[in-house]
Amino acid sequence: MVETRRQQIEDAASALFRERGYSATSVRDIAQALNLQGGSLYAHVASKEDVLWSIVERAADRFDAAVGPIAESGTPAPDRLRAMVRAHVGVITGDLGNAASFLHEWRFLSPERRAAVNARRDRYERRFRRVIRDGVTAGDFAPLDPRMTGMAVLSALNGIATWYRPAGDRRADDIAADYADLFLRSLRRTSSDD
Amino acid sequence: MVETRRQQIEDAASALFRERGYSATSVRDIAQALNLQGGSLYAHVASKEDVLWSIVERAADRFDAAVGPIAESGTPAPDRLRAMVRAHVGVITGDLGNAASFLHEWRFLSPERRAAVNARRDRYERRFRRVIRDGVTAGDFAPLDPRMTGMAVLSALNGIATWYRPAGDRRADDIAADYADLFLRSLRRTSSDD
């Protein structure tokens, strides 16, 4: 796959944002990572915030594309949640810099863009709340609070963006399967819930 | 309680760090939040990094003081984990700015200080791995991987520092109890684990 210059800039920037944070990264740092002059970067991007915005939008698009169709599939809640977890972990581990920038650096966007991201995050989180609520309604899951449980699930999953090492001994799919098992153990209705 | 000037500086700084991040906060911002001249702040602190270091050390001390004695208590793993969760959530919700600065801004410390924080975090995480391992050994918990399960538990708990609102409808103790229930549902050995 041929990467466009714009894509290279976003990749270099998101790696730097993950490592040292958005505020501590300068346009010059991004240019240096690509062996470019700082000035020539401005032929491709309007501002550092503009690069962050592209990264954040791309990440949000990826999470939506991976998880959205599964969330809408209407499959039983336990299977749906398992597939959503696998898809979510796949997006995180597939591009750690992009995911970490989305998860941690989005607050440095302008207020309007931040509001737009907030709205997308809400919509995304609602999918996790919905699958939990559906499972509770169907009797597959214990009567847990969908909002709090959804936050716990997403926080646990997003932590993977911080500790995951691609060269580590655990494959992303195995991690996703273990997390899904962990959540489903927790959520499934048991005889003591009756 | 009379707050020292130094404590006021740390409180103002940690609130700003939580809101906009360490890098985007200047010494002048901290001074302004306290109605001080930027220069007069330097009578109390050597540098912005020095303030962050005090905040991070204070947070680490609080987590250790709250969770350490419980972790060493030798009580059965399910009760111990529940008490550790309550203590950990209490530290987070008791001072959100301090906890969030510790959790998210510590990477802006100098390499030596970062290494010191990393060592303390490792030691702290080990307490969660140990209670899980103890529960597995005693047959209270299913044979789960203590490392991964410990990461999932701590990531879920630390997410509270991001979404918790003191003026919200949920009390910190109730949130802690719900999280502990969620984790224990997941961890407890069931007949299908045999």
Give an overview of the whole structure.
- The longest helix of chain A is centred in the middle third of the chain and has 28 residues, at 111-138.
- Chain A is elongated and about 65 Å long.
- Chain A has one domain (48-193): Tetracycline Repressor, domain 2 (Orthogonal Bundle), CATH 1.10.357.
- Chain A is mainly alpha-helical and 194 residues long.
- Chain A has nine helices and no strands.
- At the A-B interface, helix 8 and helix 9 of A face helix 8 and helix 9 of B.
| Outline of chain A | elongated
β-strand percent of chain A reads under 5%
Q: Give the CA-CA distance, first to last residue of chain A.
A: 54 Å
- Which whole number gives the mean pLDDT of chain A? 93
**Residues in helix, % of chain A:** over 70%
Structural class of chain A: mainly alpha
Number of helices of chain A: 9
Query: How many strands, which pairing sense, and closed or not: the largest β-sheet of chain A?
Result: none
Secondary-structure element string of chain A: HHHHHHHHH
Number of domains of chain A: 1
Attribute tags:
homodimer, 194 residues, mainly alpha, Tetracycline Repressor, domain 2, 9 helices, elongated
Summary of the model, kept short:
The structure is a homodimer of 194-residue chains. With 194 residues, chain A is mostly helical.
